[in-house]
Structures are given as C-alpha cells and as structure tokens.
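> call design_seq(struct)
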C-alpha cells in the first residue's frame, strides 16, 4: 500500500533532528514539520502502545511456566511436609514448585484476539500517516501564501518605480508650463499611496513567514527564507489526468484514513469471532512439579548434609487436561457477543462515511479547481485589457489629452488586475496540487 509521505515520516525517525536549510523549499518544510509536529509525535506514541497490545495478545497464545519457592519456620501443631504426619514440634521447612500450561482449544479466541490487536496496531500506524498528510497540506497552503505575498510585494515595488518615472516626467513638464502643478501633487499623493501599499505587502510577507515558522515549530527570532519559485514554473497536471472518478479510485488505495477504516472493520470482525468463542468449551493442558525439605527428617546425622537427597525423595509431578464448559455465566458471553456485533456495525458505518467524505472532498476539490481555472482565465483577460488601457492612457497623458486623475485610475486598475491575476494563479495551483495529493502525488513544486 502506497502512503503519502511514509518515507518522509519515518526515514529518520523522531530521534533525528532535521538540519535547517538556508533556503526552505516545500519538501524541506514538509519534512521538518512532520518530524517536529507534536500531533504526529503523539500519534506515534499511540501506535507504539497499540504495538505493545498486539505483542501482548500474541504472547497469550504461548505456554506458561512459573517457579515458586518458600522457606519458613512452623510452630504448634502442623503437618510435616516430609512425612505428611501431624507434628507439634517447631521445624524449618523449604519448598519448591514449577508449574505451567497451555490452552489447546478455545474456539479461536486467543488467535482472533491476537489478529484483532494486530489489525488495530496497523490502523494506528495509518492514523499516524493521516495526521502527517494533514500537516503536509497545511504546510503547502502556507508555503503558497508566502510565494503569493512575495509576488504581490514585487508588483507593489514595480508600481512605485512606475509612479516615480511618471512623477519625474511630469515634474519636467510642470517646470516648462506644459502641465499645471496640480498634476504633480496628484502624482506625489499616488507615490505615497504606492509606498504604503508596498509596506503593507512586505508586512504580509513577514506575517506569512511567521505563520509558517509557527507550524514548523521554529524560533520566530531566527532568519527564515524560502526558495522563491515563480508560479509560472510550477508543474501541474491537466484536468484530463485528474478526473474525479479516477482520482477517487486511486485515493481509496492510497489514502491512509481509508486504510485505517478498513483495518478497523477487519479488527472488529476478529473481535466478534473472539467474543463468539465464549459460547464454546475450552481445553487446556497443565503440569505441576513440587518438592520440599524439612529439618524434621529422621536421619538426624544428615539433616543438613542430606538436603539434596530429601529434595529428590520428595519430588512430585502431575500433568493433566482441563476442560471448561460454559453452562451459564449470567449472560456475559451473550452480551459480549452482541456488543461485538454492534461495534462491527458501527465501524462499518464509519468506514462507509470515510469513503463518502473522501469522494465528496475529491469532487468538491475538482469543482473548486474548475472554478479556479475559470477565475484565472477571467483574471488574465482583465489583466490584458487593463494593461492595454493603461498603455493608451499613458500615451494620452503624455500628449496632454488625459488628466492625472484619469491616468492614476487606469494605473490603479492595472495594479489591481496584476494582483488579482497572481492571486488567481496561486489559487489554481493549490486546487490542482490538492487533486494531485488525493491522487497520491507528493506535494512538490
């Protein structure tokens, strides 16, 4: 089964700290976030606990062996362990024992319990990957927000340069009396607004970086720079490769939450079989080895030197089979079995709901991608139109056929169109990347 980010998550384990790169690309951010995220670490602890439960259930099928020993002083009337006769004499005793056994037949209860706990452990491992996937999506969202904010700050910087050039050209024309001084004042106001927009854009970049650093559990005081990749260079699959039916069929094989739900259904089935075993007899085999020593031995000359001889002489053994037949136990077996069947029905419904939600999410993601594509086309047309309008307005302004207010209005419309276009580009990238994610592709740019 192919899981997203499974190699990323467990190659270095949690004891290995990722080295922080100078410039963070999306892959580096995803790897670092998964290794340091608290929710992922908690899921790892839960999976380890589930593994211990699975090991314990498997060990219950093994034979048992236990040793016992005791030593003490007896007073008053008691049975001498070496003669089995009553004695009123104080004496020292020492006993030994070894016992154990194994269940030979239990209608598959231990086997099904072991299988159920193993399946639950596998489900916990899949849960860990599900959380890692969620973290990865959050990282991708923040990463694209940073890229978008950087591009918008660059647009704002270009806007300032354009306004400065217009201000210089207008200043010369005002000096020779070709334009009134009001035009110059209006451009100076525009330059101030452009500078304010640039400051806001830079602030947005820094805030987006801080959001990412918080997700990565990085110190906010540390420098943090991402690898700025132009949105036009990001490779995207086509809609033909991302049809929702096809993506859903692939996702049902790849997504760890689907795998976890399926494993829990299988575990519930095994638990139901284990509960059903409570209606059937069980057969076990056991053994017991015992021996003892007493200083009341008749061989007074060898009371202490004959310890080995006395232990050997008192050595006893017994082996046997025991069958337990459940005749009536207060309806416990019946209720346990009914509970297991209801739990099985519940986890089946949960699995169906998980599949249904996945299908809804994929179809919704596909619809959002179509909308984003249409918005991108509309934004591109608006950008082309506003750019031509601004170019015509600039020429008319240079010829004295257009006022400064009209020029600045066209310039601001052009700026807004560029920002909207970049925003639409990144939204489209995210929507396509989300579909690629459901398809099983790693989140890379």
């Amino acid at each position: 089964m192919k899981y997203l980010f499974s190699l990323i998550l467990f190659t270095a384990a949690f004891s290995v700290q990722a080295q922080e790169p100078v410039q963070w690309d999306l892959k580096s951010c995803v790897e670092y976030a998964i290794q340091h995220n608290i929710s992922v670490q908690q899921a790892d602890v839960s999976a380890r606990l589930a593994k211990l439960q699975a090991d314990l259930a498997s060990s219950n099928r093994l034979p048992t062996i236990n040793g016992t020993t005791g030593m003490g002083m007896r007073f008053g009337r008691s049975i001498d362990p070496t003669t089995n006769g009553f004695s009123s004499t104080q004496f020292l005793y020492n006993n030994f024992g070894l016992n154990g056994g194994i269940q030979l037949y239990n209608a598959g209860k231990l086997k099904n319990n072991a299988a159920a706990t193993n399946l639950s452990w596998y489900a916990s491992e899949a849960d860990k990957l599900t959380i890692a996937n969620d973290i990865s999506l959050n990282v991708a969202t923040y990463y694209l927000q940073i890229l978008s904010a950087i591009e918008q700050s660059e647009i704002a910087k270009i806007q300032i340069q354009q306004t400065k050039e217009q201000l210089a050209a207008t200043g010369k024309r005002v000096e020779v009396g070709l334009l009134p001084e009001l035009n110059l004042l209006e451009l100076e106001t525009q330059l101030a607004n452009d500078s304010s927009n640039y400051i806001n854009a830079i602030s947005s970049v820094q805030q987006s970086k801080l959001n990412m650093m918080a997700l990565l559990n990085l110190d906010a005081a540390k420098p943090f720079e991402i690898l700025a990749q132009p949105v036009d260079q990001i490779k995207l699959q086509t809609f033909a490769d991302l049809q929702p039916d096809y993506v859903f069929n692939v996702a049902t094989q790849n997504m760890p939450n689907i795998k976890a739900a399926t494993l829990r259904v299988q575990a519930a089935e095994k638990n139901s079989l284990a509960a059903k075993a409570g209606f059937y007899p069980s057969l076990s085999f056991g053994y017991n080895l015992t021996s003892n020593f007493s200083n009341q031995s008749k061989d007074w000359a060898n009371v202490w030197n004959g310890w080995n001889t006395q232990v050997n002489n008192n050595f006893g053994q017994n082996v046997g089979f025991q069958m337990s037949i459940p005749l009536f136990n207060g309806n416990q077996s019946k209720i346990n079995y009914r509970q297991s069947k209801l739990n099985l029905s519940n986890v089946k419904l949960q699995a169906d709901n998980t599949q249904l939600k996945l299908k809804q999410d994929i179809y919704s993601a596909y619809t959002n991608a179509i909308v984003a594509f249409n918005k991108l086309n509309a934004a591109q047309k608006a950008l082309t139109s506003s750019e031509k309008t601004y170019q015509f307005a600039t020429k008319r302004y240079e010829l004295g056929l257009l006022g400064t207010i009209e020029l600045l209005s066209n310039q601001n419309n052009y700026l807004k169109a560029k920002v909207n276009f970049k925003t639409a580009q990144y939204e489209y990238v995210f929507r396509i990347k989300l579909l690629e994610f459901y398809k099983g592709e790693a989140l890379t740019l």
